[in-house]
Amino acid sequence: MKKFILMTLLLSLAQLTYSQSARIEGLWLTEEGQSQIEIFQKAGNSFYGRIVWLDEPLDDNGRPKLDKENSDRALRRRPIMGLEILEGFSYDVSRDEWSGGTIYDPENGRTYSAYIRLEGRNTLRLRGYVMGMRFMGRTTEWTRELRKRE
Question: How far is CA 137 from CA 59, 105, 127, 128, 134, in A?
Protein backbone atom coordinates (compact mmCIF):
# COMPACT_ATOMS: atom_id res chain seq x y z
CA MET A 1 0.00 0.00 0.00
CA LYS A 2 2.86 2.38 0.82
CA LYS A 3 4.39 1.73 -2.60
CA PHE A 4 1.06 2.55 -4.28
CA ILE A 5 0.74 5.84 -2.38
CA LEU A 6 4.36 6.76 -3.14
CA MET A 7 3.92 5.93 -6.83
CA THR A 8 0.70 7.97 -7.00
CA LEU A 9 2.46 10.92 -5.34
CA LEU A 10 5.40 10.73 -7.74
CA LEU A 11 3.10 10.57 -10.78
CA SER A 12 1.12 13.57 -9.50
CA LEU A 13 4.34 15.52 -8.99
CA ALA A 14 5.54 14.65 -12.50
CA GLN A 15 2.22 15.75 -13.98
CA LEU A 16 2.31 19.03 -12.03
CA THR A 17 5.88 19.71 -13.19
CA TYR A 18 4.89 19.03 -16.81
CA SER A 19 1.88 21.34 -16.60
CA GLN A 20 4.05 24.05 -15.05
CA SER A 21 6.65 23.70 -17.79
CA ALA A 22 4.04 23.99 -20.56
CA ARG A 23 2.85 27.41 -19.35
CA ILE A 24 4.99 29.22 -21.94
CA GLU A 25 3.46 27.39 -24.89
CA GLY A 26 1.40 29.58 -27.19
CA LEU A 27 1.59 32.81 -29.14
CA TRP A 28 3.54 35.84 -27.92
CA LEU A 29 3.78 39.38 -29.28
CA THR A 30 7.26 40.85 -28.94
CA GLU A 31 7.82 44.02 -26.93
CA GLU A 32 8.05 46.23 -30.02
CA GLY A 33 4.95 44.62 -31.56
CA GLN A 34 6.89 43.81 -34.73
CA SER A 35 6.58 40.04 -34.60
CA GLN A 36 4.59 37.20 -33.11
CA ILE A 37 6.41 34.14 -31.79
CA GLU A 38 4.88 30.71 -31.33
CA ILE A 39 6.48 28.78 -28.46
CA PHE A 40 6.05 25.02 -28.64
CA GLN A 41 7.51 21.85 -27.18
CA LYS A 42 9.51 19.30 -29.10
CA ALA A 43 12.27 16.78 -28.45
CA GLY A 44 11.02 15.65 -25.06
CA ASN A 45 10.91 18.52 -22.62
CA SER A 46 12.57 21.24 -24.72
CA PHE A 47 10.80 24.39 -25.84
CA TYR A 48 11.38 26.26 -29.08
CA GLY A 49 9.96 29.38 -30.67
CA ARG A 50 9.44 30.44 -34.27
CA ILE A 51 8.33 33.63 -35.95
CA VAL A 52 4.76 33.19 -37.23
CA TRP A 53 3.87 36.82 -38.02
CA LEU A 54 5.79 39.97 -38.95
CA ASP A 55 4.43 43.50 -38.98
CA GLU A 56 6.51 44.11 -42.11
CA PRO A 57 7.15 40.72 -43.76
CA LEU A 58 8.44 42.16 -47.06
CA ASP A 59 11.64 44.03 -47.88
CA ASP A 60 11.85 47.25 -49.94
CA ASN A 61 11.59 45.21 -53.15
CA GLY A 62 8.36 43.49 -52.07
CA ARG A 63 10.07 40.15 -51.40
CA PRO A 64 9.95 38.19 -48.13
CA LYS A 65 12.58 39.39 -45.65
CA LEU A 66 15.61 37.14 -45.44
CA ASP A 67 18.07 36.32 -42.66
CA LYS A 68 20.67 38.53 -44.35
CA GLU A 69 22.61 39.37 -41.15
CA ASN A 70 23.41 35.73 -40.35
CA SER A 71 27.14 35.11 -39.87
CA ASP A 72 26.78 31.87 -41.85
CA ARG A 73 26.61 32.88 -45.52
CA ALA A 74 24.71 29.69 -46.37
CA LEU A 75 21.83 30.76 -44.10
CA ARG A 76 21.41 34.31 -45.39
CA ARG A 77 18.81 33.29 -47.96
CA ARG A 78 16.38 31.68 -45.52
CA PRO A 79 13.18 33.64 -44.83
CA ILE A 80 12.66 35.36 -41.50
CA MET A 81 9.02 34.17 -41.44
CA GLY A 82 9.01 30.70 -39.89
CA LEU A 83 12.52 31.08 -38.48
CA GLU A 84 13.14 29.32 -35.16
CA ILE A 85 14.65 31.96 -32.90
CA LEU A 86 14.24 30.19 -29.53
CA GLU A 87 15.91 26.84 -29.04
CA GLY A 88 16.41 24.24 -26.33
CA PHE A 89 14.71 25.72 -23.24
CA SER A 90 13.77 23.44 -20.36
CA TYR A 91 11.86 24.17 -17.19
CA ASP A 92 13.88 24.55 -13.99
CA VAL A 93 11.50 23.93 -11.08
CA SER A 94 13.82 25.36 -8.44
CA ARG A 95 14.14 28.71 -10.26
CA ASP A 96 10.64 28.71 -11.79
CA GLU A 97 12.16 29.58 -15.16
CA TRP A 98 12.99 28.06 -18.54
CA SER A 99 16.74 28.02 -19.10
CA GLY A 100 19.51 26.29 -21.00
CA GLY A 101 18.31 27.72 -24.30
CA THR A 102 19.32 30.32 -26.82
CA ILE A 103 17.70 33.19 -28.69
CA TYR A 104 18.71 34.21 -32.19
CA ASP A 105 18.34 37.88 -33.16
CA PRO A 106 17.83 38.14 -36.94
CA GLU A 107 18.40 41.91 -36.79
CA ASN A 108 22.09 41.42 -35.97
CA GLY A 109 22.64 37.74 -36.79
CA ARG A 110 23.79 36.83 -33.28
CA THR A 111 22.74 34.05 -30.91
CA TYR A 112 22.61 34.59 -27.16
CA SER A 113 22.19 32.37 -24.12
CA ALA A 114 18.83 33.10 -22.54
CA TYR A 115 16.28 32.30 -19.89
CA ILE A 116 12.55 32.93 -19.67
CA ARG A 117 10.32 33.78 -16.73
CA LEU A 118 6.58 34.33 -16.60
CA GLU A 119 5.04 37.20 -14.69
CA GLY A 120 1.45 36.20 -14.34
CA ARG A 121 -0.17 34.24 -17.13
CA ASN A 122 0.19 36.75 -19.95
CA THR A 123 3.62 38.37 -19.57
CA LEU A 124 6.85 36.66 -20.54
CA ARG A 125 10.23 38.16 -19.66
CA LEU A 126 13.09 36.86 -21.77
CA ARG A 127 16.69 37.75 -20.93
CA GLY A 128 19.46 37.20 -23.45
CA TYR A 129 23.03 37.35 -22.21
CA VAL A 130 26.62 36.72 -23.27
CA MET A 131 29.58 34.69 -22.00
CA GLY A 132 27.47 32.85 -19.42
CA MET A 133 27.02 36.04 -17.38
CA ARG A 134 23.35 36.74 -16.76
CA PHE A 135 24.08 40.29 -15.65
CA MET A 136 25.54 41.09 -19.10
CA GLY A 137 22.44 41.12 -21.21
CA ARG A 138 19.11 42.60 -22.16
CA THR A 139 15.59 41.76 -21.05
CA THR A 140 12.53 42.02 -23.26
CA GLU A 141 8.88 41.61 -22.33
CA TRP A 142 6.42 39.73 -24.52
CA THR A 143 2.63 39.61 -24.24
CA ARG A 144 0.52 36.49 -24.69
CA GLU A 145 -1.86 36.50 -27.65
CA LEU A 146 -4.85 34.21 -28.08
CA ARG A 147 -4.75 33.85 -31.86
CA LYS A 148 -2.35 34.07 -34.72
CA ARG A 149 -2.20 37.41 -36.51
CA GLU A 150 -2.82 37.56 -40.23
Answer: 29, 13, 7, 5, 6
Phi, psi of 24 (to 5 degrees): -85, -10
pLDDT tens digits, 6-51: 445 444 444 444 456 789 999 999 999 999 999 999 877 899 999 9
Beta strand residue intervals within 1-150, DSSP E: 26-29, 35-42, 46-54, 84-92, 97-105, 110-119, 123-130, 133-145
- 97 contact partners, CB below 8 Å, separation of at least 6: 91, 115, 116, 117
Q: Are 67 and 84 in contact (CB under 8 A)?
A: no
Domains and CATH numbers, the chain: 24-145 (2.40.128.520)
